[in-house]
Amino acid sequence: MISPEDWLAATTKSLIEVADTYFDMGTMEAESFYEVDSPKCGAIIGLTSDHNTVQLMVVATRRGSEKLGKALLGFEPDETIETGDLADAIGEIINIVAGMVKTAVNDQDDTLNLTLPTFVEGTVEPLGGQVALGTIINIGPVQTKVVVINGARQVKHRPRSSAA
Amino acid sequence: MKILIVDDSKAMRMIVKRTLRQAGYGDHEFAEAVDGANGYEQVNDWKPDLVLSDWNMPNMSGLEFLQKLKADGNGVRFGFITSEGTAEMRQMADENGALFLISKPFTPDTVKETLQKALP
Asked: Quick check: ipTM above 0.85?
């Protein structure tokens, strides 16, 4: 079974590579943390097999996610990005990251399947029996959090009451 | 040259197109399809010279799309641009007649080098 620390290391490395390739803003890993309880905007994706179940998440503030989405899509900074385009862009980031992670851990588990990415805005709370840990990665001015939730049960998503 | 970009993500279709422009393919014609089924229709209608397809897509995956083209005897040049690049997938792509598999994230240099090798 792949450890949460190994999932996090692979996910962090992958996000940094994606950011360096597509954003050209400068990327820096800042610190690790063990809580995911503040309202965030981002995307989540699952990697599952008979041996491993993990959910990977990349989140930032709504404004931060919009900056990343606009940069990915080639929008001007003052252009408006609709939620559908934002979801598509942020979902693609986590999809690429998860694909890289799957490739990176292939020698430990070559039966992993990717789920479809899901855009989330609100509070994500791991349920009992799950292990969550993460790393802060600064992509230019945008502080993002990479979160790994390891465990078989589903993550409970609590939407913000003022979600856009 | 007519290039068909097949990906269920609008964001990724835009990135592929932008990268092709940056790689020096900006003066070619582009069309887009949202999944393998839509790509299959466009191959028959628009008759591209090159198909760049994602692997994991709803309705019809990239591999099923390629297999359907091959079953028809359609020899359009076909390459994958996908987020997963395991050795097994590369082998499957190769065995089914794909010219290449580019893993995301990719740079203009990667795309240019790959297309230069794959195209006449």
From this structure: no
